[in-house]
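Please fill in the sequence for the structure shown.

STRUCTURE ENCODING:
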């Protein structure tokens, strides 16, 4: 018996690999960039399976202030074909690190008002730690690597394009130790 990637408390048979664990497959790994409002229930439904004991999510929303200034709205642009290709690479990396069953990432483009959802990520797995850690890895990777750009529009009439964030991905390697 081997120990689960999620922790040292769950024993798995030596040959345990979920049917679609290591390979990105659009039947189990969902990607959407859309100008339409996003639905957490819909995204969770895409990763729900009877084999899952956990579904973990991240929902990013537009906040009303940034650095002490009032935010009116965000505007997103994306290079969708490149984003999808890079997202599949990221999901492949997550599948190497964690025992996950399904993934979904939906991201808005266009105007996103204060309080609205900009991005949702959901991951299903047999155990909660894999789902939680995979979501953390996926949102950090998205912020660092996907060609999705955000412009913040402020109530003083100014606006600022935000670059992709520098993310210390070493924290995700520590989680595996």
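FILLED IN BY: designer on duty
SEQUENCE:
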């Amino acid at each position: 018996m081997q120990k689960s990637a999620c922790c040292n408390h769950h024993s798995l048979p030596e040959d345990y690999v979920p049917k679609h664990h290591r390979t990105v497959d659009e039947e189990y790994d969902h990607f959407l960039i859309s100008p339409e409002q996003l639905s957490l229930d819909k995204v969770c439904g895409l990763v729900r399976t009877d084999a899952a004991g956990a579904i973990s999510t991240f929902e990013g929303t537009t906040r009303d202030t940034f650095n002490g200034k009032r935010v009116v709205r965000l505007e997103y642009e994306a290079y969708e074909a490149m984003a999808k290709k890079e997202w599949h690479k990221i999901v492949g990396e997550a599948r190497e690190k964690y025992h996950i069953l399904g993934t979904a990432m939906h991201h808005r483009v266009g105007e996103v008002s204060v309080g609205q959802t900009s991005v949702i990520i959901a991951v299903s797995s047999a155990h909660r730690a894999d789902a939680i850690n995979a979501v953390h890895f996926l949102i950090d990777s998205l912020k660092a690597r996907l060609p999705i750009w955000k412009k913040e529009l402020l109530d003083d009439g100014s606006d600022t394009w935000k670059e992709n964030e520098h993310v210390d991905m070493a924290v995700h390697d520590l989680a595996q130790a």
